[in-house]
Amino acid sequence: MKIIHKPTFSQQLKQIIEYIAKDKPSASMNFKNKLKENINLIPNNPFQYERSQYFDNKNIRNMTFKKYTIVYRVRPVKQEIEILRIFKKNKPSPQ
Q: 25-41 and 7-23 helices cross at what angle (nearest 10)?
């Protein structure tokens, strides 16, 4: 399966990386690299994570990484994983 990063996800990730880099630039790069590794594992078992409570769609899932939720959509027919959003767990709904 191909992984697609949607613009909203990319923008949100950039903001998170910039925020982390203010205090510790090396930690921001480590965060980004480890997150990428975890995202790259999703196609191996795309339905392993819980169904998203933010969307009424069985193909939209939440992956937790550190204190962040990554929302993604499985598109079996297109053989794609769309990475939709990333946000801190304690923040309100990402819609």
A: 150
